[in-house]
Structure formats: structure tokens, C-alpha cells
UniProtKB/TrEMBL annotation:
<dbReference type="Pfam" id="PF01428">
    <property type="entry name" value="zf-AN1"/>
</dbReference>
<keyword id="KW-0479">Metal-binding</keyword>
<dbReference type="InterPro" id="IPR035896">
    <property type="entry name" value="AN1-like_Znf"/>
</dbReference>
<dbReference type="Pfam" id="PF01754">
    <property type="entry name" value="zf-A20"/>
</dbReference>
<protein>
    <submittedName>
        <fullName>Zinc finger A20 and AN1 domain-containing stress-associated protein</fullName>
    </submittedName>
</protein>
<dbReference type="InterPro" id="IPR050652">
    <property type="entry name" value="AN1_A20_ZnFinger"/>
</dbReference>
<feature type="domain" description="AN1-type">
    <location>
        <begin position="81"/>
        <end position="127"/>
    </location>
</feature>
<dbReference type="GO" id="GO:0008270">
    <property type="term" value="F:zinc ion binding"/>
</dbReference>
<dbReference type="InterPro" id="IPR002653">
    <property type="entry name" value="Znf_A20"/>
</dbReference>
<comment type="function">
    <text>May be involved in environmental stress response.</text>
</comment>
<keyword id="KW-0862">Zinc</keyword>
<dbReference type="GO" id="GO:0003677">
    <property type="term" value="F:DNA binding"/>
</dbReference>
<keyword id="KW-0863">Zinc-finger</keyword>
<feature type="domain" description="A20-type">
    <location>
        <begin position="10"/>
        <end position="44"/>
    </location>
</feature>
<dbReference type="InterPro" id="IPR000058">
    <property type="entry name" value="Znf_AN1"/>
</dbReference>
Length: 146
């Protein structure tokens, strides 16, 4: 009767190899999803883990060889991590709402303006350069072209 209506039996559904009552698939060694997860794939997993370890160690060696050794100072790294958490003017904790100034320091909401924290950045020179780039000099020709 299935042939008359064009239906075909599903070939991938077979009972689980552990006889748990569920269906398994050939992709999971004829095991259901639970039994496949519980199935000890010791040979497969150890081979994959050894490949991952070997590739990661080879990558680490190549990156170490490519870059020269730079002496790392522990106190400098700790200070750099500690600076952005506090305002440079009042030492108030700023967290994520800190404002980074063009002079490179972080400030709270009340000290974020250059006038409030005596910013050493030269805004006038920056403005002059921006105007000079935006407005090229226009000169008339000195000689009349024939």
C-alpha cells in the first residue's frame, strides 16, 4: 500500500544498539543520542586531544620564535589595568562610564572637559591643522595664459 501512495520507509531509523528503546542512526554508531553521549569514545577522544595539544604547542612555539623577547614589568601591567577605573583628577571610580580624553587619561563626568582638568593637549593646533586640510589655498595665476 505504501508503494501505491509513493511513501517510502525511512531507512535511517533503527533501534538503538544498547536496546534502550529509542532509535539510533548510522552517524551515531546506531546509538540513540543519550547512549552516544554516554558511550566511551576513548580511542577517538584521546586521538583528537593529542592532535589539539600538538597543534597548540607548535603554534605557541612559532609565535615565540617570531617575536623578540620583551622584558615585562609586573608593576607596569598592574598600573595600566588600575588606571582606567578611576578619574585622574578626583580619583573617583568611573567604571564603564569613564571618559577618555585626547590627552590619554580617563575622567569622570564632571572632569571630562579640558577646562576642568587642565588638559595639556593642544586643541588650537589640532583645529588649525583641520582647517588647513579642509581649506586649500587658492591663488590666481601670475601669468596670463595665451
Amino acid at each position: 500500500m505504501a508503494e501505491e501512495h509513493g511513501f517510502q520507509a525511512v531507512e535511517g531509523h533503527r533501534p538503538c544498539a544498547n536496546n534502550c528503546g529509542f532509535f539510533g542512526s548510522p552517524a551515531t554508531l546506531n546509538l540513540c543520542s543519550k547512549c552516544f553521549g554516554d558511550h566511551p569514545n576513548s580511542a577517538k577522544s584521546t586521538a583528537e586531544n593529542s592532535l589539539l595539544v600538538a597543534s597548540s604547542s607548535a603554534t605557541a612555539r612559532s609565535t615565540v620564535e617570531n617575536y623578540p623577547a620583551v622584558p615585562a614589568t609586573g608593576s607596569g601591567a598592574a598600573q595600566a589595568a588600575g588606571r582606567p577605573n578611576r578619574c585622574s583628577a578626583c580619583r573617583k571610580r568611573v567604571g564603564l562610564s569613564g571618559f577618555k580624553c585626547r590627552c590619554g587619561t580617563t575622567f569622570c563626568g564632571s572632569h571630562r572637559y579640558p577646562e576642568q582638568h587642565a588638559c595639556p593637549f593642544d586643541y588650537k593646533a589640532l583645529g588649525r591643522e583641520a582647517i588647513a586640510r579642509a581649506n586649500p589655498v587658492v591663488k590666481a595665476d601670475k601669468l596670463d595664459k595665451i
